[in-house]
């Protein structure tokens, strides 16, 4: 759902450029505080994986195609700020090197595919795991990443309608209906990869519930 | 992964009960899959319009897309001058993976992790 240049009007792309740049700068600051040195290569590798997986469009209902986004995966693995930083790096390289997604709308793409998808995915995952007391982790991961796509597409719909492209209800309906199908792919890939890479802590210290 | 029942019986878990693996084999599998997906699988991706393009087409604003930045070295994931779709797209994917690895490694090495600067990497801590 990379927005190309031209879809958003001037006030919207300028506003979202400011928001997207601030979010990227702040995520850099949070990463500095949170990232242990031994995780540097993991962050780089997951970013590369997200880039690679985003190249694979899978056909949907003969009418459209979807691809993995990665906001929920990066946020579940590293927390939402490092997730946002990874997504911003992926989106910037796609726009600058591969002409995928616009340059004036890079901030809007960072906002939707980065901030919104990371925080929506992470929020649902944390809340779901707390409510279920850790049961059904794979199902919660699936739902969290499905919702991250729906939330990101709703963000794009909001920006499109704010640009006067089309009316809000129509925009939301159109974007959410297609992306609730595309989100199934997101849920499946995230569940497999997060299931593969996350492990139970070796020593489960009592009272040690808080991180990030 | 194996003893779900036992550990659950021992006490409630939450998202913080899980940490990212340090198992080298798993990370090597991730790296290999990343290159395989970018280099080998990518040429066979669907070329149908994506979700946003579908919506833009259905609602008549696909034409409002325009090119502002025309200097992308590998536009549309095809390396110019190579013959054959598989080679063009596959090499674009591999280049992209290498660029991503380098970019994120430099960013997170320089900016991430306290006390992680200037230890023989030759790169200055660019902040402050």
From TrEMBL, chain A:
Coiled coil: none
Annotated InterPro entries: CbiM/NikMN (IPR002751)
Name this polypeptide is given: Cobalt transport protein CbiM
Transmembrane regions listed in the UniProt entry: 40-60, 72-97, 103-125, 137-164, 176-198
Keywords attached to this entry: Cell membrane, Membrane, Transmembrane, Transmembrane helix, Transport
Membrane topology designation: Multi-pass membrane protein
Cleavable signal peptide: none
Cellular localisation: Cell membrane
UniProtKB/TrEMBL annotation, chain B:
One Pfam family it belongs to: PDGLE
Annotated TM spans: 27-45, 89-107
Keyword terms, alphabetized: Cell membrane, Membrane, Transmembrane, Transmembrane helix
Organism listed in the record: Paenibacillus plantiphilus
Compartments, record wording: Cell membrane
InterPro entries the UniProt entry points to: PDGLE_dom
Record's protein name: PDGLE domain-containing protein
Principal location listed in the UniProt entry: membrane
Ribosomal protein is among the record's keywords: no
Domain PDGLE: 25-108
């Amino acid at each position: 759902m990379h927005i190309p240049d031209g879809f958003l009007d001037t006030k919207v792309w300028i506003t979202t450029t400011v928001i997207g740049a601030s979010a990227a700068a702040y995520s850099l600051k949070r990463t500095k505080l949170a990232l242990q040195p031994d995780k540097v290569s993991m962050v780089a590798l997951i970013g590369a994986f997200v880039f690679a997986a985003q190249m694979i469009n899978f056909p949907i209902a003969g009418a459209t195609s979807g691809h993995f986004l990665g906001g929920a995966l990066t946020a579940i693995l590293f927390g939402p700020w490092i997730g946002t930083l990874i997504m911003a790096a992926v989106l910037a390289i796609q726009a600058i090197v591969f002409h995928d997604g616009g340059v004036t709308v890079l901030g809007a793409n960072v906002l939707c595919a980065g901030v919104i998808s990371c925080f929506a995915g992470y929020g649902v995952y944390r809340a779901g795991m707390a409510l279920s007391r850790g049961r059904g982790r794979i199902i919660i991961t699936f739902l969290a990443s499905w919702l991250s796509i729906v939330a990101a597409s709703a963000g794009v719909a909001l920006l499109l309608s704010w640009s006067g492209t089309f009316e809000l209800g129509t925009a939301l309906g159109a974007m959410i209906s297609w992306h609730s199908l595309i989100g199934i792919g997101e849920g499946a890939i995230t569940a497999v990869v997060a299931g593969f890479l996350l492990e139970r802590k070796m020593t489960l210290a009592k009272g040690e519930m808080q991180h990030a | 992964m194996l003893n779900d029942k036992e550990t659950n019986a021992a006490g409630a878990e939450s998202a913080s009960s899980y940490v990212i693996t340090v198992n080298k084999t798993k990370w090597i599998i991730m790296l290999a899959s990343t290159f395989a997906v970018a280099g080998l699988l990518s040429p066979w991706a669907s070329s149908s319009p994506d979700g946003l393009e579908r919506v833009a087409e259905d609602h008549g604003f696909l034409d409002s897309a325009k090119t502002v930045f025309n200097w992308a070295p590998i536009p549309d994931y095809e390396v110019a001058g190579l013959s054959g779709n598989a080679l063009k797209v596959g090499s674009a994917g591999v280049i992209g993976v290498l660029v991503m690895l380098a970019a994120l490694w430099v960013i997170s090495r320089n900016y991430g992790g306290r006390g992680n600067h200037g230890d023989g990497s030759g790169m200055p801590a660019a902040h402050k």
